[in-house]
Specification:
The protein is mainly alpha-helical and about 475 residues long. Among the domains are: about 85-320, no CATH class; about 410-470. About 50% of the residues lie in helices and about 5% in strands. Strands 1-2 form a two-stranded antiparallel ribbon. Strands 3-4 form a two-stranded antiparallel ribbon. The chain is globular.
């Protein structure tokens, strides 16, 4: 109880008072970026002035709902065609991007993306593509906490391990009593549930544990004769039914027993998964007292996702440093945020290649460990790709990019900022862009008319694609 009280007394940065303080607009913007793809004016109007806990509760209880607007049709060979995710890897990625753009509950898609990165499965190693779609639907079911408030991480791990995409990706379908495959055994320990060592540096498992877990997870088969109705079945004749010793316990363990061991019995699991989930939303590591509180909550709820996620999202560190955002937007989050800010949808194949150039193509994580977060997202090439993406979409003919006749630099700045969703800008960037906008007013050269025509485009380009736009 002392720990919980100590956490409640922490001040919300940018607000007034404790964690029940009324949120200011920068706090709302931060929350909407960390749990979604940026704020809308409706979000600001709805949530400004409310407490952090009440806003988080509403986000967690918000129904997923239908996607907003009609599904996209893309321009191909002069004809408008619907997306065909089972026929094209490009359409496969675009279908998920479209969901992110048109969703009514961005938190569901952000959690789905988190699970996809945690249980990284590569489309290049998995066919038919229907397997990836089914896995994505599995992740989304566990991410939709309004519809599935009792969802547990233990059950998610169990379903993922018996899912056709994971079985195919890690050669689980070929793992038998005569030839057990260790791929999944290693990943469920190292990447999914435990990590290699605990906080003291002590190994969380041995090579003997891996070999025994491999034996316990044999016997699964995939029937994909009908790609649209793939069946995963357990064949007792392919299962190693002899005793296995895992983490010092001997028994005729099977896959569900292994999941139980690594999610509810092993001391390292709570800290491992809480750390993963925490850093999806917050940059600064949790204080020891906060981590202890989260671990207790996770154990008490028997690995339920909702309670521990709520504690993370309502932690004051979610809103730290409002004047200097300290997380880098992943490429998909950045891209979808731009599309939502410009109120644009998918019209061609462009988004697939653009996000790939930024270093993140959905369904194609680079390794079994997923994508590296943070500063790894930005290098010379990916930064240019981000800025280029913004400028490509500012060419959309539906956007009004010309100065109004007689518009001052200050007015042009304000109109540009409002038209791209009022994004956060540092005081230095704001001053520089406003200075540029006002200088055009003073320009009496023969190029002035063209400069005024380009002013809105330049302002929007830097507001949406400049350095400040890369952080959240």
């Amino acid at each position: 109880m002392a720990i919980a009280n100590r956490r409640r007394r922490i001040r919300i940065p940018g607000g007034t008072g404790g964690t029940q303080a009324r949120l200011k607009t920068p706090n709302v913007d931060r929350l909407m970026w960390r749990t979604g793809f940026g704020p809308s004016d409706a979000d600001r109007n709805r949530f400004t002035g409310r407490s952090l806990s009440s806003v988080v509760d509403e986000l967690l209880k918000r129904p997923q709902g239908r996607l907003v607007g009609p599904p996209p049709v893309v321009d191909r060979d002069g004809a408008k065609q619907p997306l065909e995710p089972t026929e094209s890897d490009t359409d496969l990625t675009l279908e998920w991007m479209d969901r992110c753009i048109r969703t009514q509950n961005p938190l569901v898609e952000r959690l789905t993306l988190f699970f996809h990165n945690l249980f990284a499965t590569q489309r290049s190693e998995v066919s038919p593509p229907q397997l990836m779609i089914t896995q994505n639907q599995l992740f989304r079911r566990y991410a939709d906490l309004a519809a599935n408030p009792g969802a547990t991480f233990k059950d998610l791990v169990a379903e993922v391990g018996e899912d056709a995409a994971m079985l195919r990706f890690l050669d689980g379908e070929n793992s038998t009593d005569e030839d057990p495959n260790e791929n999944y055994a290693r990943e469920i320990c190292e990447l999914f549930c435990l990590g290699t060592v605990d906080k003291r540096g002590v190994p969380n498992y041995s090579e003997d544990d891996i070999r025994e877990i491999a034996r316990a997870t044999t016997g699964w088969t995939i029937d994909d004769e009908d790609p649209d109705d793939v069946k995963v079945e357990f064949d007792p004749e392919r299962f190693d039914s002899s005793p296995k010793t895992i983490f010092g316990k001997t028994g005729n363990w099977d896959h569900r027993d292994v999941v139980e061991m690594v999610t509810t019995k092993h001391h390292a699991h709570p800290r491992f998964i809480i750390t993963k989930l925490w850093h999806e939303f917050i940059a600064t590591p949790p204080p020891d007292a906060t981590m202890a509180d989260l671990i207790r909550s996770y154990k008490r709820s028997r690995t339920r996702i909702l309670p521990v996620l709520r504690e993370i999202l309502t932690d004051p560190l979610m809103l730290e440093s409002p004047r200097e955002p300290n997380m880098i937007k992943p490429p998909v989050v950045f891209t979808v945020g731009v599309m939502r800010a410009l109120k644009l949808g998918i019209e061609n194949n462009r988004l697939d290649s653009l996000t790939n150039a930024m270093g993140q193509r959905l369904y194609h994580p680079p390794t079994v460990a997923g994508w590296d977060p943070g500063i790894a997202w930005l290098n010379t090439n990916t930064a240019i790709a981000r800025f280029s993406m913004v400028n490509r979409y500012l060419n959309n003919e539906d956007l009004d990019l010309d100065d109004d006749e007689g518009e001052t630099g200050a007015q042009a700045f304000k109109r540009a900022w409002e038209s791209v969703g009022k994004p956060w800008m540092s005081s230095g960037a704001r001053s520089s862009l406003l200075f540029y906008a006002k200088q055009i007013d003073k320009d009496d050269s023969k190029d002035n008319e063209n400069n005024r025509r380009q002013r809105l485009r330049v302002l929007r380009s830097f507001m949406l694609g400049g350095p400040d736009a890369q952080v959240m």
